Amino acid sequence: MPIEPLTPERRRAQTREHLLAAAAEVFAQRGYHAASIDEIAERAGFSKGAVYSNFDSKEDLLLALMQVRSAELLQLFDLAGSEPAAIREVYSDAQDRAEAWALWTEFTLYALRDDRRRRELAEAQQAMHTHVVEMVEQQCRDAKVKPPVPIDTLARMYTALFQGLWQQQTVDPDGVDDDVFPEAVLFLRRAVEQLGTPARRS
User: Fold this and answer.
1) pLDDT digit string (tens) for 122-145?
2) In the CATH hierarchy, which fold is given to the domain comprising 62-198?
3) Beta pairing partners, 197
4) What pLDDT does residue 39 have?
5) Cα–Cα distance for residue pair 106/113, rounded to 1 Å
6) Which top CATH class is 1-55?
7) Which long-range contacts (C-beta less than 8 Å, at least 24 apart) are formed by 183-192?
8) Of 56, 103, 143, 157, which has the fewest beta carbons less than 10 angstroms from its beta carbon?
9) Residues 25, 29, 35, 40: is their CA dihedral positive or negative?
């Protein structure tokens, strides 16, 4: 097969991916506030100018990183379906959960003190919520039921389960087993199927 040419768009996309990967490592090692653009650029093998040509600031870089990681995680959960072992594997293999939670918390607190960043964080959160809504809608179609609560509410319940257990496990990893999340997800799904009403055929 012919080699696909490295167009400027592909080169820029690859640069962005390398910068996000380097940022994930540096943020995890040093924390958000101690991390520097210089170190991220050096870790990625680029100049500081390459960072600023792709991201407006360190805050913008962290927000982009969280958006990418969240989208990847949602995709994995979607592929896992309703198989408990698959859900557990996705949850237990989530990259650097403790570090990611700490960074997300740091950035959330920072954003709450800055109106522009708060709006950006809200937009990112809404984008993730939209993906969860789509997943829940598909689950209900597959089960051929109309859920007992609005889809939007149900999607937020799934998100709250993940975020709440994520936080608890970060604080007390020995006290919260990886099986708790898939068990809670399957319990909620069964409740929806049993309490929901049969969906009408279109």
Assistant:
1) 998 998 899 999 999 999 999 999
2) Tetracycline Repressor; domain 2 (1.10.357)
3) 146
4) 96
5) 11
6) mainly alpha
7) 183/84, 185/87, 185/158, 185/161, 186/82, 186/84, 186/87, 188/154, 188/157, 188/158, 188/161, 189/82, 189/139, 189/143, 191/148, 192/139, 192/140, 192/143, 192/145, 192/147, 192/148, 192/154
8) 56
9) negative
